[in-house]
């Protein structure tokens, strides 16, 4: 049994909650879908959990009633906001976090630590916690109301909400573009058995690299969303030729990595490929709502070289890859692929990059 998601969101509205400040998690995708569908509460997607938390603080101090929804690994990104703003200033609002589990031997190693230590992390922040009651709507709302008045976090278990689909007007249609797999297959053909290190960002990008790039030297980063470029920059600064495969949601999470790498444009061989499918695919396919961004201009103003055009065909993509010396940025518009298997743990859990 799970909570009726429509009733849950309507109950939040009836209790005067005004905004959902969110970094998506698959555990909360149905709540997100209903918030997007419902005109009586505002869905406010954020670039990172720290941003979501800070926005919510501003909303609360300005008289609104926000709720923050994140996943457990993202709760760590909120540490500074929680400990140096919410706690000392006495600001309270509901924070809902998933509690991701982990089974020994699973390749989703980013969840291993917090699968057992999430309560300790919450306590270290000076908070208490509730496990959200997914059987009784009235009790779940009472728990959230308690979190609104106290430094208490609400923990969401898997399958706590029943299914809600996005209304048609909110669904993405990327059928005019080719799937990312076609570009990854092209990378595999061009760089197979070459001394080039590929870094795959967390989520579907890394999973698809495992399926479609079997002949390249790949590092599959299971967690640390937003950090792929910085990991790649570190390797490039150490003398490696690096290509980072990232996504649009990942691009904005820690943009300081972009500006940091840009200081060394003539000292590293680092190519950052942004695959823009407009969504958080691995957490439910939620729209990133980043159509207002010009990724190429952001990269160029940070110090990257870019040809200036969004890549939409494999032919144009291959032309841009003829020279990967220096600091380069490539923006690829693409459709999604069917779900691919996660890389096994023996190829994910590595401590050193292989030589090509």
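^ structure tokens above, recovered residues below v
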């Amino acid at each position: 049994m799970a909570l009726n998601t429509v009733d849950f969101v309507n109950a939040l509205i009836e209790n005067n909650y005004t905004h959902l400040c969110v970094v998506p998690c698959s555990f909360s995708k149905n709540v997100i879908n209903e918030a997007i569908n419902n005109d009586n509460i505002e869905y406010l997607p954020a670039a990172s959990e720290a941003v979501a938390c800070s926005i919510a603080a501003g909303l609360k101090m300005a008289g609104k009633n926000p709720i923050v929804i994140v996943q457990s690994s993202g709760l760590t990104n909120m540490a500074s906001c929680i400990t140096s703003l919410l706690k000392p200033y006495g600001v309270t609002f509901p924070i809902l976090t998933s509690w991701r589990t982990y089974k020994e031997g699973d390749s989703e190693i980013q969840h291993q630590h917090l699968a057992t230590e999430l309560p300790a992390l919450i306590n270290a922040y000076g908070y208490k916690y509730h496990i959200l009651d997914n059987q009784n709507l009235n009790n779940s709302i009472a728990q959230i109301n308690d979190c609104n008045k106290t430094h208490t976090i609400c923990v969401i278990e898997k399958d706590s909400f029943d299914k809600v689909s996005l209304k048609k007007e909110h669904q993405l249609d990327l059928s005019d573009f080719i799937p990312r797999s076609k570009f990854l297959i092209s990378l595999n053909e061009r760089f197979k058995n070459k001394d080039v290190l590929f870094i795959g960002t967390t989520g579907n990008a890394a999973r698809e690299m495992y399926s479609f790039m079997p002949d390249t030297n790949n590092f599959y980063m299971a967690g640390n969303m937003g950090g792929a470029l910085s990991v790649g920059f570190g390797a490039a600064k150490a003398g490696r030729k690096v290509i980072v495969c990232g996504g649009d949601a990942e691009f904005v999470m820690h943009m300081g990595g972009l500006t940091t790498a840009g200081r060394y444009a003539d000292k590293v061989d680092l190519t950052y490929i942004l695959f823009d499918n407009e969504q958080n695919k691995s957490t439910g396919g939620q729209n990133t709502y980043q159509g207002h961004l010009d990724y190429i201009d952001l990269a160029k103003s940070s110090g990257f070289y870019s040809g200036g055009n969004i890549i939409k065909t494999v032919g144009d993509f291959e032309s841009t890859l003829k020279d990967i010396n220096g600091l380069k940025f490539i923006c690829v518009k693409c459709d999604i692929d069917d779900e691919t298997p996660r890389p096994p743990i023996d190829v994910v859990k590595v401590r050193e990059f292989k030589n090509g």
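The chain has a mean pLDDT of 94.
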